[in-house]
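Archive transcription. Copying these from loose printouts into the bound notebook so they stop getting lost. Printout 1 of 2:
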Amino acid sequence: MADTAVAEAQQEEVEFVYPITVESAGPATKKVTIEIPESRIRETLDRQFKELRTQAALPGFRPGKVPQKLLEKRFNKAVREDVTRTLLQESYQQAVEKHNLKVVGEPSFDEQTQIELPETGSLTYSFSIEVQPEFSLPDLSSITVKKPKIEIKDEHIEQARQNLREQQGTLLPVEGRGIQEGDIVSADVHVKLDGEDVLHQHDLQFKVKPGTILAIQIDDLPAQLSGAQVGETRTLTVKVNPKHPTEKIRDKDVQIEFKIKDIRQLELAEIDSDFLQQLGFENEQQLNDALREEMEARVKNDLQNHLRDQVAQALLDGVQMELPEKLSKQQEGRVVQRRAVDLLRRGVPEGEIIANIENLKGGAKDEAVRELKLFFILSKIAEEYDVDVTEGELNANIAAMAAQQGTRPEKLKQQMAKEGSLQTLYIRLRELKAIDKILEKVKVEEVEPEKKDA
């Protein structure tokens, strides 16, 4: 009989429908108002006290025989608090499910004080909640991506051999001369705009060749630093590209100051029998074959990522949506934190990172908007095309990561689950699979490679 009564009570709870209204309250935000009728409050309180009566043991009374009035006097506050939590949770869940609210954050209640049950009458409460934005996907078949035709040639293998000689080479101190192209230099680097220090990194080590310093392209770096000695400071003026991470210096002329601290030259390793044996090859042909195989795999991977980037950009350009404000702000904070962690991993002292925290925020808002927008788009595509990541795919990626880190896959998986990064990996893999699903539908146009692609 007791089991039947519990089942009937549960059935009654499932069938009860709360008066709920949902209205728009800003970008991807809903205001929800819920009424808990007096009858529902009284019914739940009565049920709670009845359950308490069967369990309560007070001095002078047998279990189940404690007078209702005494129970209400002794446990009224605790029971009402418990019923409040139950009804709020129950009504909130019903609002989310019945109105198909795809919640992306915690509710923000209108009341500044704790919600309490009234002595008489119904309880009405409101809250705002951010939800997934509503938007339409573009016609995926109308997207065209360009795939560079890249052929591995003998000169590419020779360059790979040269790179290998550099990797296995020896750094020797430079004496009696200044900087030459190809030297490895350590310097304190400061980027200034109108005399103000905007970016800096101490003990930055780099090769003197055309390339980037602090994400700024410097094509004539060898000429600018030619002949500089240890202890000397060289300043050059460079035009910053319009997409630099630091918004303040985008498309501006900045002064980059190099204080030279150390100069070393690279003595290339010789590809001889000892070198080949050390790497596990019997002859140079085996080395060349291995380099070609590695390069073909890398080109294939790079091409796939190149196509994925084009698809992602086409989706971003083709979809209009309003993002939830609080979530956007939180994502902006995560972008800044990620940049700080990246700098820590590169050996930048924590004090310097803190001192440059405002610079780290540069462009973070745009990056956060892009990431959130792409997340919602790819989530919708994954849902519509039934894209998911299997346990086997997840474990395979964890195993590859564990091999790189020299740890056991199960240990890494436990660590990632504890840190919350396991869910991040799942989402990233699902996004890649969603993009690859789109690549099956788009038009792929083969083109001659640009210089940077080659």
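Printout 2 of 2:
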Amino acid sequence: MAGSLRGMAEKSTQSIVINADPKAIMDVIADFPGYPRWAAAVKKAEVIAPGAGGRAERVRFSMDAGLVKDEYVLEYVWSEDGLTVAWELVESRIQKAQHGSYVLEPVGPATRVTYSLAVDLAIPMIGMIRRKAEKVIMETALKELKRHVEL
């Protein structure tokens, strides 16, 4: 994987329970071209390197979150059990590093989805502000994922 965790900012983590089985949720997470339909900040997501098992290895994103606009490429690693996906930043205009993951845990008929994210921007940002931005990104992503999966 590109990038290094050394020197990375502390990660932020949030969870949500979605009323669906893990496979249905991971299928939505893995459907990158579909992101613009449910993830408001993602304007385009294009698989540029398919991986083994039909899951993308590299994806180029175009994001517009108001003040923050970026085009970036992420590299993904999918667990064999289908319950975890992790990613690292490969290239970006404004990010120096990004490391994230979704971990799915069955809870009865539902699934707890835990999203972890650490972002290091090329522009200076006070840690407290960066953590608040990560919190908003994760909260929004989890709520949008839940809404889309539970339709």
